[in-house]
Design a protein that fits this description.
Chain A is an alpha/beta fold. Chain A contains 5 helices and 11 strands; from the N terminus they run E-H-E-E-H-E-H-E-E-E-E-H-E-E-E-H. Chain A has a single domain, classed as 3-Layer(aba) Sandwich (Rossmann fold), CATH 3.40.50. In chain A, strands 2-1-3-4-11-10-9-6-7 form a 9-stranded mixed sheet, sandwiched between helices. Chain A has a two-stranded antiparallel ribbon with strand order 5-8. In chain A, strand 10 and strand 11 form a beta hairpin. Chain B is an alpha+beta fold. The chains are: A alpha/beta (226), B alpha+beta (83). At the A-B interface, loops of A face helix 1 and helix 2 of B.
Chain lengths: 226, 83
């Protein structure tokens, strides 16, 4: 299973690269955002960070760069795409996921470990978790206050697209405590928390490991061959 | 040459946490009668082109494709010819 990590100016791409290398021991390539052909990869991880300095709106400029053509194509083909933090913002800005991000309701940048509840394990990213499982995953963002209108929210619920919610405390004011959603087909996931920063105990939590192992299992069970 | 002045504002239905914080500070300064503050953006875009109409059409597309996020924002613009 071959992974690509798109790199924009200001991305934290190496966290994602190390997570794939350390957890899955599969080939992973950091790909500069000028490249538009991602056809040789099986999965794409759009990393966190502050692409383009968060100018205009977080993710807005990255969403219009050439590499997003490759991401769109991969998503259409049913390949696995995950956007983490700024990557989630980029997926929203590109229209691959519904909704938008607002500034955190308290206006602060929050760097913390959030507690999430797994709402749905019927998708390629959470198969190894139990529904209702509480997991601890780091967050680091100023604009993670997910917003969508009521009609979109009803759609998300109906189609089981809400994957993670914050429990105990909502760190940013997001609608219904949403921390991560997927598209209707289930192959594109966006989440504000950073599973790639939760892979060994010294990080404070290793609860992100199962997200990556879930992806690998899904790929293997759906005809993926090394 | 044409100059477009573009205003991007949050939709009425979307809470503006920055505006709420600024409203609080205005209250602290004694402006107790401030009922609401909403913060938006003003962009100036200079474009070369044949006509004002062409420039306006282009600016509209720019707003829809990039400058505003239609999920949470509205936009308005004015275009004028400049030397």
């Amino acid at each position: 299973m071959r992974f690509a990590v798109p790199v924009f100016p200001g991305s934290n791409d190496m966290d994602a690269v190390h997570a794939i290398e350390d957890v899955l021991e599969r080939p992973v390539t950091a790909v500069w955002h000028h490249e538009s052909d991602l056809s040789q990869y099986d999965a794409i991880i759009i990393p966190g960070g502050c692409s383009y300095g968060d100018y205009l709106r977080p993710g807005a400029l990255a969403a219009r760069s050439p590499i997003m053509e490759g991401v769109q194509k991969a998503a259409e083909q049913g390949k696995l795409v995950i956007g983490i933090s700024n990557g989630f913002q980029i997926l929203l800005e590109s229209g691959l996921l519904p909704g938008a991000m607002r500034k955190n309701d308290h206006l602060q940048f929050r760097c913390d470990i959030a507690t999430l509840i797994v709402e749905n394990n019927q998708n390629p990213f959470t198969g190894h978790y139990q529904v209702g499982e509480r997991i601890r995953i780091p967050i680091a963002h100023a604009q993670g206050n997910y917003y969508c209108d009521e009609q979109t929210l009803a759609e998300l619920k109906k189609n089981n697209q809400i994957v993670f919610k914050y429990v105990d405390e909502n760190p940013n004011g997001s609608v219904e405590g949403i921390a991560g959603i997927c598209n209707k087909r289930g192959n594109v996931l966006g989440m504000m928390p950073h599973p790639e920063r939760a892979i060994v105990d010294w990080m404070g939590t290793s609860d992100g490991v199962k997200l990556f192992t879930s992806m690998l299992r899904y790929w293997e069970e759906n005809g993926g061959a090394e | 040459m044409f100059k477009a002045i573009i205003y991007v504002t949050l939709k009425e239905s979307v809470l503006d946490p920055q505006g709420v914080a600024v409203q609080g500070s205005l209250h602290t300064l004694g402006f107790a009668n401030v009922k609401e503050v909403r913060i938006g953006k003003r962009l100036e875009v200079l474009v070369e082109g044949e006509s004002k109409q062409q420039a306006e059409e282009q600016v509209k597309v720019m707003c829809e494709k990039l400058l505003a996020n239609p999920v949470i924002e509205n936009y308005t613009y004015e275009v004028e010819e400049v030397a």
